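Lab notebook, design round three. We kept the backbone fixed and only want residue identities now. Task for the bench partner: fill in a sequence for the structure below.
Input structure tokens:
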């Protein structure tokens, strides 16, 4: 596996609408594995292909599957690779939360997101998949899918600021 370089603002690829993935070949498998590796090394809990300079609709996420596990450090995390992901359902209920982004180092923002979303897409082999995500996991999916449309968290934030201490850094995506 190869670590890919994470691109940061003002790279224009981050503002482009990414194109759908159509080929489920060996190169795609390598790309997904590289993205998971790059996300872990960063470290981050999500990564979208435009963040490594590829304008394609592909995201990876690694987080607790169950909302109740968020407080439990020993709980296993799950890895998702979702191709051409779409939010097909979103709760009316929203939550405020603090987000950071691997492509915008040194900035945090308070962002309102749907508390629950249903995401539909294809898995790494091109088979349809559906994910029901709540809480922070739902936030990660919304943040990553925004990346595929050239939307970045400061666009949605009610306020942004520069963290003064490393402890202030949140899970980055
Ligand atoms: Ni991000």
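Proposed sequence:
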């Amino acid at each position: 596996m190869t670590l890919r370089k994470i691109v940061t603002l003002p790279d224009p690829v981050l503002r482009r609408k990414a194109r759908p993935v159509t080929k489920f070949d060996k190169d795609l498998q390598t790309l997904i594995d590289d993205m998971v590796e790059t996300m872990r090394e960063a470290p981050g809990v999500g990564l979208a292909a435009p963040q490594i300079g590829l304008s394609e609709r592909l995201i990876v996420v690694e987080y607790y599957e169950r909302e109740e596990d968020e407080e439990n450090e020993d709980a296993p995390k799950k890895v998702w690779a979702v191709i051409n992901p779409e939010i097909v359902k979103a709760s009316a209920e929203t939550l405020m939360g603090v987000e950071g982004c691997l492509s915008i180092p040194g900035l945090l923002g308070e962002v309102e997101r749907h508390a629950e979303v249903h995401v539909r897409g294809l898995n790494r082999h091109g088979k349809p998949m559906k994910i029901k995500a709540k809480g922070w996991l739902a936030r990660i999916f919304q943040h990553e899918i925004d990346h595929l449309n050239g939307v970045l968290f400061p666009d949605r934030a009610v306020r942004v600021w520069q963290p003064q201490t490393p402890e202030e850094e949140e899970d980055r995506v």
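Keep this in mind before ordering anything: The pocket of nickel (II) ion is lined by residues 101-103, 143, 147, 173 (CB under 6 Å).
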